[in-house]
Write a structure and sequence with these properties.
The complex is a heterodimer of chains A (138) and B (177). Chain A has helices at residues 25-43, 93-111, 125-135, and strands spanning 2-8, 14-19, 57-63, 67-73, 79-85. Chain A is α+β, with helices and mostly antiparallel strands. A 5-stranded antiparallel β-sheet of chain A has the order 2-1-5-4-3. Chain A is globular and about 40 Å long. Chain B has helices at 18-38, 51-68, 78-94, 135-151, and strands at 100-103, 108-113, 156-161, 168-174. In chain B, strand 1 (100-103) and strand 2 form a beta hairpin. The A-B interface holds A 10, 45, 51, 54-56, 73-77, 104-105, 107-108, 111-112, 114, 118 and B 6, 59, 62-63, 65-67, 69-70, 72-77, 151-153.
């Protein structure tokens, strides 16, 4: 299961971030922040070789000894980052894709709340419930 | 507007009841009446203040785009996005795609709808009778366009031009920084 889920806005500002435990939150914040660079690189139009794939799912951004970091960017320039434990080998690419799909649907639903002001942080219980489910905290 | 706007592919056949399709028009007409009745002070040059309608459109457009582009492959460039607006965003809302798209490839796009849904009840065959009231019916859609483009990352100014009634041209000016 995921250990950290983050939503990053159009302007790379944090919209939502949740980590498995408070004690390592800083570490995850740092990792998510670093991954923005790689996402930008993958999205960069000038870079033809990378932009061949037009899928929203960006795949593995980078892997460390303990963690694997996956990215996803929507057509509306929102970015989702999910950190998984490297030791968990049972999760395949397709499972990760499903996680992002769920996250994207939950995000779209959260945005459609008329009281949500675009660009604000996401403070939706329904969205958080989906994130909890992804992280196996439900 | 259909209840599930995300299932774009399934309802292009247009097989839903009349009542479904009219709801949006009725609601839009009432909102327009409400907004117009609320603003007594007019601008200096006799133009009505339609900012509120435009604003509502903006946020509706912003939200629809988030949902409607969910299953779409990534857009490569600006023109792809505008084309998407013409062919895939317009039909679920207005029951037909945009008829004509013109661009100077420098950030100006003109989207022409020959029989715009919100105007077609006003009269056909170049009638000029309601021409001066029709901006009220267009303000929401201008906002809708601006909001949807804004969420796609295009900051723009949208203006509308009407010369003969059921048709309408939307001028999109992309703002570059």
């Amino acid at each position: 299961m995921a250990v950290c889920v983050a939503v990053i806005g159009k302007d790379n500002s944090p919209k939502f971030i949740k980590c498995a435990s408070e004690s390592c939150a800083i570490e995850f914040h740092f990792k998510v922040h670093t991954s923005i660079d790689i996402i930008e690189e993958k999205l960069n139009v000038g870079n033809k070789a990378v932009t061949d794939s037009r899928e929203l799912f960006l795949g593995l951004l980078y892997a460390t000894d303990e963690h694997k970091i996956f990215g996803y960017a929507t057509n509306t320039k929102m970015k989702f980052v999910v950190v998984l434990q490297s030791s968990n080998a049972s999760l395949r690419d397709n499972d990760v894709r499903m996680i992002f799909r769920k996250l994207h649907l939950a995000y779209a639903n959260a945005v459609c709340n008329p009281f949500y002001i675009p660009g604000d942080e996401i403070k939706s219980k329904a969205f958080e419930a989906v994130v909890n489910e992804i992280m196996g905290l439900a | 507007m259909k209840p599930q706007i995300s299932d774009l592919k399934s309802h292009t056949s247009g097989s839903s009841g009349e009542a479904d399709e009219s709801l949006f028009e009725y609601l839009h007409a009432e909102i327009m009446n409400y907004v117009v009745s609320k603003n007594v002070p007019m601008n200096k040059d006799g133009e009505e203040n339609l900012t509120r309608l435009e604003h509502m459109g903006f946020y509706v457009g912003y939200r629809i785009i988030e949902r409607i582009t969910r299953e779409w492959p990534r857009f490569k460039e600006e023109l792809d996005m505008i084309k998407f607006i013409c062919t895939d965003f317009w039909p679920p809302l207005f029951q037909k795609p945009i008829d004509n798209l013109k661009t100077n490839h420098q950030g100006i796009y003109v989207l022409q709808d020959n029989e715009f849904r919100l105007l077609k009840r006003l009269g056909n065959n170049d009638s000029k009778q309601y021409l001066c009231e029709s901006p009220r019916l267009i303000a929401f859609t201008c906002g809708l366009l601006r909001g949807s483009l804004a969420n796609l990352g295009i900051v723009s100014i949208v203006k509308a031009e009407m010369t003969s009634l059921p048709s309408c041209k939307f001028h999109v000016e992309v703002q570059r920084v």
